[in-house]
Amino acid sequence: MAMHPKKFGVWLFMVSVVMIFGALTSAYMVRQAEGNWLDFELPTMFWVTTGIILLSSATMHWAYLSVKKNNIETARVAISITAVLGVAFLVGQWMGWTQLVAAGIHLVGRDASAVSGSFLYVISGLHGLHVVSGVIFVLVVLVAIFRFKIHSKNLAQMEMCATYWHFLDGLWLYLFVFLLLYR
Amino acid sequence: MATTDIHIQHDVHHHDDHSHDEHHEGNFWTTYIFSQDHKTIAKQFLITGIFWALVGGTLSVIFRLQLGFPDMNLEWLKPILGGWITPEGKLDPEFYLALVTMHGTIMVFFVLTAGLSGTFSNFLIPLQVGARDMASGFLNMLSYWFFFLSSMVMLVSFFLETGPAAGGWTVYPPLSALPQAIKGSGMGMTLWLVSMALFIVSSLLGSINYITTVINMRTHGMSFTRLPLTIWAFFFTAIIGVLSFPVLFSAALLLIFDRSFGTSFYLSDIFIGGEALPHTGGSPILFQHLFWFLGHPEVYIVLLPALGISSEIIATNSRKPIFGYKAMIGSMLFIAILSFIVWAHHMFVTGMNPFLGSIFMLLTLIIAVPSAVKIFNYVTTLWKGNIRFTPGMLFSIGLVSFFLTGGITGIFLGNSAIDIQLHDTYFVVAHFHLVMGSASFFGMLAGIYHWFPKMFGRMMNAKLGYLHFWCTFIGVYLVFFPMHYIGIAGFPRRYYSWTNFETFSGFADLNMLVSIAAIVTLSAQFIFLFNFFYSMFRGRLAPANPWNATTLEWTTPRNPQHGNWPGEIPSVYRWPYDYSKPGAKDDFIPQTIPYSETPESNLPHENELIKLETSNGHGAIIVEGKH
Ligand code: HEM
Ligand SMILES: [Cu+2]
């Protein structure tokens, strides 16, 4: 059962993040069950960002494997792509929001059913904030790789970063599917 | 009896050990202020907790003055409260609500969560599981400083023109969401939310550290079944915290959006001064669901550490093994699980579907079972024990008493039909102050008396401890017992004034009694304060193991330095409750004594374990895994 304490800490942190989003999505369902709910289409951009974040998970894994095999050159490329994709995801989410606004769905609405839009913004926004923290973590690891601080003998930080990144990916998939199913 | 993998922590700890060495000669700032040592952080939590307990207690005495002596002229409080005393010498009604709110918030979160878990989880986990420090000293330090920041923000809110938050510690919207509703819902409420957000961060950092340390950093031989019950209790508490505080965060986040960005998660159809507010479509009940999903587990976050502390103290001072060690763990686990599925018992009168209400009623009443198991085990541990009435022991027994008297009223409240009468009356106030407030508070005091020698290397004065105990014990019952009667009569909580109601004016003397008792009880705490600070510098020097206890912390030097043990961390060979073992030389056998050294008292299966003790270099039992 014992493992690297810091890695274990990352797992516990992810548990608490799951609880935050678990709470928000259950609140969403409770409110929706009360009726008076605005049906919405998810912006097309969200499909694109879903693709982007999935891809970034793949490049993250690529970076991880390269580091493990001490292919530092490849790892540099892979981790850089991951960082770029992370930023691209955030930009894409922003564009998704502008699509929502164009479709007349705002954070604040004058109508009793507008709260569905509020939920949409808060949930995706809070996930975005977590991705910001993930990108920062990726950048830290990126710098460490470029400085040869991370290699096959010193993987802990890389592993924690990869775990967190895949988690953020999985979390978005959950939220995306949830929002698709419970519009 | 195989334990989990024991080698790993060596590998893991390699780096940390290096940094330990570098840290040794820290300056004043790194030693006392930005310390990463778990013992110092524990003391920081303790001192901050004591500060808040004084503030919280003083607030309660001020509003008790209003309740007990409604006609009293409070002009003399003007120097402290300024504008909150009206020109007629009365307490401002809105400030009364702020006082109640701040009292609850401070006591529940700052004193009994941060002050209790922060102090004892930090202090005892590394010492009792045999670790040099917490898994991450840095995050641990952050945990304290987030708490400190959170405290500062809350403190600042007292000095606002509009006063601190005033919507109750449960901050139900719409009252808390609309700045127009009440003065306290303005800036005070904003600061409340900021402070709580910081508090949640602090609590999560702490909990993550506690869980990680317990799971990964136990010394050789310290299997889960050899952990003292204190550690089990802190462990469950931390797990509950990790699962429930994020939900409070979500609840608060949506409230922040409603307050500051104009959304309507919790707000709908509200008219103020005849004008309809733009908010529409929200549900205030949603907030209650989210809040109590944290709120009910939170009461166990407050209580479980106190129960763990008293288990340890009662076993030690009864000179008997704790009765039902596994049952104690099992009941705590069961309580922890149940605590997540009973939240709606706080919401029976919100118009909830009666069928749903009866499900929550059933689940709620089941909590009585593990609670009763625990009380039974405390009593059977005491039964025919060779009891030593140390101050810590008295406070632990007091805890058992409060847990019982307060828990019984929970069964009344848990009935959804009876709760219609009792909800939001002083009966609820009596219930939770006994079972949560007083019980946990006594657990905290018991812990301080018991571990003071380890914290400060000196003994507290026992005579003053007895005086403190009896004043507080009798005082608490005088304060909260009468509230049951007042509550059954329907007297509502959080009312500034009740003298206008014919039905309630008959309770004037009872209320006066309660208020006088509250003042006396608060004053008695100064005996403790004196004892605490005086003993810190002038107390009798503590022997290495003042209570003849078995656990690991008493094998450290009188004033353990950073790293806790000067040499190797001791290995553990037995459970922590070998008190008065038949045949043994002394009436206690420390966890560090191998069975091979105690042939006179070993049970047959323990003799079997001797082979394993010597079969590997460390003398620890079998190691699983491929390392
Ligand atoms: C047998 C076990 C228990 C049962 C059945 C029980 C039941 C209840 C019920 C039904 C209420 C809601 C009453 C109302 O608002 O109308 C309540 C309130 C409360 N209980 Fe318990 N309880 C139990 C044990 C505990 C314990 C162990 C604690 C704390 C350690 C606790 C702390 C509280 C608090 C803080 C409140 C009031 C919160 C508020 O409204 O401000 N209870 N309890
Ligand atoms: Cu409850």
TrEMBL record, chain B:
<feature type="transmembrane region" description="Helical">
    <location>
        <begin position="464"/>
        <end position="492"/>
    </location>
</feature>
<feature type="transmembrane region" description="Helical">
    <location>
        <begin position="137"/>
        <end position="160"/>
    </location>
</feature>
<feature type="transmembrane region" description="Helical">
    <location>
        <begin position="355"/>
        <end position="373"/>
    </location>
</feature>
<feature type="transmembrane region" description="Helical">
    <location>
        <begin position="512"/>
        <end position="534"/>
    </location>
</feature>
<feature type="domain" description="Cytochrome oxidase subunit I profile">
    <location>
        <begin position="23"/>
        <end position="573"/>
    </location>
</feature>
<keyword id="KW-0679">Respiratory chain</keyword>
<keyword id="KW-0349">Heme</keyword>
<feature type="transmembrane region" description="Helical">
    <location>
        <begin position="231"/>
        <end position="257"/>
    </location>
</feature>
<feature type="transmembrane region" description="Helical">
    <location>
        <begin position="394"/>
        <end position="414"/>
    </location>
</feature>
<feature type="transmembrane region" description="Helical">
    <location>
        <begin position="327"/>
        <end position="349"/>
    </location>
</feature>
<feature type="transmembrane region" description="Helical">
    <location>
        <begin position="426"/>
        <end position="452"/>
    </location>
</feature>
<feature type="transmembrane region" description="Helical">
    <location>
        <begin position="45"/>
        <end position="67"/>
    </location>
</feature>
<dbReference type="InterPro" id="IPR036927">
    <property type="entry name" value="Cyt_c_oxase-like_su1_sf"/>
</dbReference>
<keyword id="KW-0408">Iron</keyword>
<dbReference type="InterPro" id="IPR000883">
    <property type="entry name" value="Cyt_C_Oxase_1"/>
</dbReference>
<feature type="compositionally biased region" description="Basic and acidic residues">
    <location>
        <begin position="7"/>
        <end position="20"/>
    </location>
</feature>
<dbReference type="GO" id="GO:0004129">
    <property type="term" value="F:cytochrome-c oxidase activity"/>
</dbReference>
<dbReference type="GO" id="GO:0022904">
    <property type="term" value="P:respiratory electron transport chain"/>
</dbReference>
<dbReference type="GO" id="GO:0009060">
    <property type="term" value="P:aerobic respiration"/>
</dbReference>
<dbReference type="GO" id="GO:0016020">
    <property type="term" value="C:membrane"/>
</dbReference>
<protein>
    <submittedName>
        <fullName>Cbb3-type cytochrome c oxidase subunit I</fullName>
    </submittedName>
</protein>
<dbReference type="GO" id="GO:0020037">
    <property type="term" value="F:heme binding"/>
</dbReference>
<keyword id="KW-0472">Membrane</keyword>
<keyword id="KW-0813">Transport</keyword>
<feature type="transmembrane region" description="Helical">
    <location>
        <begin position="299"/>
        <end position="315"/>
    </location>
</feature>
<keyword id="KW-0812">Transmembrane</keyword>
<dbReference type="InterPro" id="IPR023615">
    <property type="entry name" value="Cyt_c_Oxase_su1_BS"/>
</dbReference>
<feature type="region of interest" description="Disordered">
    <location>
        <begin position="1"/>
        <end position="20"/>
    </location>
</feature>
<keyword id="KW-1133">Transmembrane helix</keyword>
<feature type="transmembrane region" description="Helical">
    <location>
        <begin position="189"/>
        <end position="211"/>
    </location>
</feature>
<comment type="similarity">
    <text>Belongs to the heme-copper respiratory oxidase family.</text>
</comment>
<dbReference type="GO" id="GO:0015990">
    <property type="term" value="P:electron transport coupled proton transport"/>
</dbReference>
<dbReference type="Pfam" id="PF00115">
    <property type="entry name" value="COX1"/>
</dbReference>
<keyword id="KW-0479">Metal-binding</keyword>
<dbReference type="InterPro" id="IPR023616">
    <property type="entry name" value="Cyt_c_oxase-like_su1_dom"/>
</dbReference>
<keyword id="KW-0249">Electron transport</keyword>
<feature type="transmembrane region" description="Helical">
    <location>
        <begin position="95"/>
        <end position="125"/>
    </location>
</feature>
